[in-house]
Amino acid sequence: MASIRISGLHHRYEPDAAPVLEGVDLELGDGEAHAILGGSGAGKTTLLHLLAGLLHPSAGTIEFDGREVTGASPAERHVAQVFQFPVLYPALDVAGNLGFPLVNRGWSAAAVRRRVGEVAELLSIAALLTRKPKRLSLFEKQLTAIGRALVRPDVALVLLDEPLTAVEPAAKWRLRQALKAVQDELGLTMIYVTHDQTEALTFAERITLLHHGKVLQTGSPEALYQQPAHEAVARFIGSPGMNLVDGEVSAGSIRCNGQVLGTTAAADGRCLLGFRPEWAAVGDRGVPVTVRTTRALGTLSGVAAGLVTAELDGKVIHVQQRLDGLVGNQARLLVDPSRILLYRDGWLVNDATG
Amino acid sequence: MQRANNRAWLAVAPVVLVVAFTAIAPLMTVVNYSVQDIFDVHTRLFVGLDWYRETLRDPRFLEALARQLGFSALVLALEIPLGIWIARCMPLQGRMTVAFLIVLAVPLLIPWNVVGVIWQIFARPDIGLLGAAVTALGVSYNYTSSALDAWITLALMDMWHWTSLVALLCFAGLAAIPPAYYQAAELDGASRWQVFRHVELPHLKSVLTIAVLLRLMDSLMIYTEPFVLTGGGPGASTTFLSQYLTSMAVGQFDLGPAAAFSVLYFLLILLLCWLFYTSVMKRGDEAA
After folding, report:
1. Which residue of chain B comes nearest to A94, CA vs CA?
2. Minimum-distance CB partner of B187 among A74, A84, A134
């Protein structure tokens, strides 16, 4: 287990190719469960390869426990990885697969057997130890691959590259629970890469959102939800994502379509107004909107509640609210004035505290 | 109970007919010859299994059989490891890969008798590049007079001709291994030998099965190249089954014994391939 510090990491695969990572900075505490979230092409897998030592960065440094490992080989770093699909050695049984990294490091047969037994117990795969990978389900295979990543007691960092991708949907939840339990029990430093925000939000203490090779924000799941530092984070996190509509600031007032929605200390000028669906309400006051659909999702204090989809200046917005009193499709939108987020050139310019 | 509708079998009829005319009928003709003594078109005598008994007691058949098995074992033992090694040395992608593939494919495109002619000249101690070079080095080498030299030349020629096939199959197998397996092995601290043993070899199992089967069948049937290169000599030292069979059937018109020989030969190839295939498959099931 180790704390990790990444500074100014750049990477390009060919000297004249476009950079895959551009100045990534990241710090992880010892024993932290960290998720790296991003769409395809964000540079997630490249970042993992750089951490594992399978690739070496074009620029920047990586430190484990304050010791620079930027040029070190995978063997020197004590990093383990779980891949998107279960990577097992077909000729070895489960016990052989689990023990493989230990045998390679010259452990005695008895010590290997003892450690493999412990890990198998931890993951509840002790009954499978004599099976060959061919006779395991995808879930059991991936569990074995996870076990192989955990087997070295001196492992500095465990990398998980979308480990639930290949698993049957019904087993995803079980595997996630198993991973979380292992993390809690062993206190390993783990980096979990995914494009699925639910996986990231449930697994990690802190999340880093990677977008086109840049870190847009690192923070707790709640911080990413409440205070997205960049409009791409606002869109990515949440389901549906944050509403972003055109507006402006003039003389300390936040305006949208001529209506004042709140006040701010931010400088005058055009900006995007961001608000979560539950921070707003469609009713009889505020900015005129056209209601397209309403979808009841249940009741709130005895009143039908759900999701309202409306249009503002041609942009679709979602609002989560009570559905009574909505008549016709012409209505008005009000947003909690203390929670309106202002984005200029993509970045958050006010710090609304809700 | 519902009556099964068997009309679909009619759709198979044309294929059955073609196979009957091209494979079953000729094979049965051979079986028919093998149990009769034929003097001319109208005079024949049913002899039962006599020809089979005679063939199995024929020392020349048994010697050819032993040589045949020895030759197959030798070329397999040389070509399979060499093919794997060549495939592992090839770059997985890039311009060099294409160059390698083309060079490897060339020997496979050369007709067998041409291969024989090429080597007959190449290995001649007086004018052949290989033969003259070896002779110039002071090694006494002559494939027309020394049985050992003839065998070495034949084995080299077979490797020259067929190692490419094994290498190409293995290359296809290696190219299909996802990079994650190599990455995992590197993170797990595996040595180069372990990467070969635990990552590459298991993934090559099915292509190697095909490669061994093809080389086994083909080497058991080898005829043209030794016929051109050594003519079965010196003496009978490179006379393999097919060559002995041809000399019986075409040279001496011993149709009965030749037919019995053919059936035995066919069954032998079938048996060896079946033994190999089932043992591989059974091992696979146990390993599962």
Report:
1. B288
2. A74
- Best residue of B187, B193, B208 to probe chain A, by most A CBs closer than 10 Å: B187
- Say how far apart CA A319 and CA A301 lie, in whole Å: 17
**What is the fold of A4-232?**
Rossmann fold (3.40.50)
The alpha-carbon gap from B175 to the nearest alpha carbon of chain A, in Å, equals: 16
Q: What percent of chain B has pLDDT over 90?
A: 26
CATH number for domain B58-287, candidates 3.40.640.10, 1.10.3720.10, 3.40.50.10490, 3.40.630.10: 1.10.3720.10
The total number of residues shown for chain B amounts to 288
Q: Name the CA dihedral angle for A191, A195, A197, A198, rounded to a multiple of 10 degrees.
A: -90
The answer to whether the CB atoms of A134 and B288 lie below 8 A apart is: yes
ipTM of the prediction: 0.82
Residue B182, chain A, CB below 8 Å: the answer is no
What confidence score (pLDDT) does residue A354 get? Answer: 40
Dihedral sign (CA B21, B25, B27, B29): negative
Report the predicted TM-score, pTM, of the whole model to 2 decimal places: 0.80
* Rounded CA separation B211/B81 (Å): 11
Chain B: closest CA distance from residue A52 (Å): 8
Which residues in chain B have Cβ-Cβ distances shorter than 8 Å to A104? Answer: 188-191, 194
> How confident is residue A352, by pLDDT bands cut at 50, 70 and 90?
low
Domain boundaries, chain A: 4-232, 240-348
